[in-house]
Every structure is written in structure tokens, then in C-alpha cells.
Amino acid sequence: MRTNNALRNKEQKIRNIEKAVSRFSQKFMSNSKWLRLIETIVDNAQEFKKIEFKKNPKQ
């Protein structure tokens, strides 16, 4: 069961996502696809934090 605070946080996150997406003038994906993509990224944030990158040697 979610508390009111948790629901408000989720709604705020959705508003922030919609605000960020609206800044782009051209739409390459529909809003629903953007939401699905971003929600998937957020849901799997712990996996992304585990990714380590190697620095490229100076060229």
C-alpha cells in the first residue's frame, strides 16, 4: 500500500518527465514510448549504477 507522500512523489516524477520531454521540438517517439522508456530506466536504476566504464586512452 502506498502512502499519499509516495503517490505525490510519483506524480511529481511523471510531471518532471513530461516537462523534460516537452522541451524537444521534434518528436521521434510518441509520448507513451518515452514514458515507457524512462520508467524502465528508472525501475532498473540499480543495474545502471553497476555499469563501469573504462576511460579512453588519450589520442
Structure description:
Helix 1 crosses helix 2. The protein starts with a helix and ends in a 10-residue tail after the last helix. The chain is flat. The longest helix has 19 residues, at 4-22. Helices cover 63% and strands 0% of the residues. It has helices at residues 4-22, 31-43, 45-49.
Characterize the largest beta sheet: strand count, sense, and whether it forms a barrel: none
Percent helix, as a range, is 55-70%
User: Tally of extended strands?
Assistant: 0
The gyration radius over C-alpha positions equals: 16 Å
What's the overall geometry?
A: flat
Low-confidence stretches: none
- Give the helices and strands as they follow along the chain: HHH
State the distance separating the first and last CA atoms: 54 Å
**Strand coverage percent:** under 5%
Q: Mean pLDDT score, rounded? A: 81
Tally of individual helices: 3
The chain-level structural class is mainly alpha
Structure in a nutshell:
The protein has helices at residues 4-22, 31-43, 45-49.
